[in-house]
Amino acid sequence: MTKALMFQGTGSDVGKTVLVAGFCRLAANRGLVVRPFKPQNMSNNAAVADDGGEIGRAQWLQALACRQPSSVHMNPVLLKPQSETGSQVIVQGRVHGQARGRDYQRLKPELMAAVMDSFTRVSAGADLVLVEGAGSPAEINLRAGDIANMGFATRARVPVVLVGDIDRGGVIASLVGTHTILPDEDRAMVAAYLINKFRGDVTLFDAGITAIGRFTGWPCLGVIPWLKDAARLPAEDSVALERLARGEARALKVAVPMLGRIANFDDFDPLKAEPEVDLVFVRPGERLPADAALVVLPGSKSTISDLEDFRAQGWDRDLAAHHRRGGRIIGICGGFQMLGRRVTDPLGIEGRRSEIEGLGLLDMETEMAPEKTVRNVRARHARSGAALDGYEIHLGVTRGPDCARPFAVINDHPDGAISPDGRVCGTYLHGLFGSDAYRASLLAEFGILAGLADYRGAVDTALDSIAEDLDRLVGFEAIVAAAASIA
């Protein structure tokens, strides 16, 4: 019979994704068939699963850690925020529709059926399924109809390990408070807890473990320090962008404006890993740095709204000045669409019927259309001939004279556009910087030798290192025992 264990957090960004990925790799290295599962994810960082359709990038990474093909059933419900109050709802890899907060609550009974169907599929043939929760189970205002945390755990009878982030402070109160506020049925699902992101001498927290045990009766599976290799894995949440080190003296400065609805920002992780690249995420209220050699406009979940915000920040003027100085510009997906003369949305695909003047750096126009392109692709960079492995997740059709100079060729079909002087280009391909040959070619254009020969290999090595750390700090046997703690 397949065993399962769920990792829930005392809050968001406590490190659940990395821990699940690490334990997945640990189980895989022990010879188990292990698979990841997340009932509900909220993220604009999406991946194209191996069986087609969208899932969260985190579950794609966890499948990689398991050495298993990724599947839409590993993340059956994906919410992609489009505004402060509304999201696109992806169910089992396909667009289900749009929903605001209250509307989504009414959808949950229907979605639970999809969640349980997917969990059954993921469990089939597996020795172990490691499940990641979302947010906190203590959000009791959302408990009715919950599919992300205890609602799923109680329905599927999956024991829970609660993860507390000590780096934020107040971890004892977070764990004890969660114990206090949970109803009896939910509290009974908790098999143990973990302390994550500890700094310093672990023995200094011995009294804390004693106190938590006295208040809750929960055993501690371990105290995990900051895992140095976690920084080498793609980040899932945009809050991670706020923590990026900045201003290092390196050969090539690359600036990325932090759009309000930025999507797939893990596109930039391979550049961040390059030793000669200073990757700067430009926050709202800041100027695009004048000394940047390259500006990359990232993907967006709402191109028109983000283009309006781009102008409101004055970044359009900064980008025009950068272009006049001879700087290079690349647009990815929504960022590519912004570089054209106009973006129109006659059907209100992004929420309202509208059109907007583009940045005018590429001679082309984009019209939003209801059919969504979702696919993994193998392409060739048109100028260098370098191989490109990436994926497309986008709405809209782009046409214009500059499209006659494609950025890439996908199965003999052109993608993207390049300006006549070659300094501005755009593509619908996500993941392009993860292609080693293309990244090396791009850096060579700036006179820089790539220092990272195998990005995907580096991620795989980081997963092995994290698995070794977790085996030493927690132990594989402890995870298996926790998974068997509820019949």
From TrEMBL:
Residues 253-437 form the CobB/CobQ-like glutamine amidotransferase domain. Pathway: Cofactor biosynthesis; adenosylcobalamin biosynthesis. GO terms for molecular function: ABC-type vitamin B12 transporter activity; catalytic activity. The active site is at 333 (nucleophile), 430. Keywords: Cobalamin biosynthesis, Glutamine amidotransferase. The keyword Lyase does not apply. Pfam families: CbiA, GATase_3. CDD domains: CobQ_N (cd05389), GATase1_CobQ (cd01750). The keyword Transport does not apply. GO terms for biological process: cobalamin biosynthetic process. Residues 5-237 form the CobQ/CobB/MinD/ParA nucleotide binding domain. It comes from the Bacteria. NCBIfam families: cobQ, PRK00784.1. Catalyzes amidations at positions B, D, E, and G on adenosylcobyrinic A,C-diamide. NH(2) groups are provided by glutamine, and one molecule of ATP is hydrogenolyzed for each amidation. Belongs to the CobB/CobQ family. CobQ subfamily. This is Cobyric acid synthase.
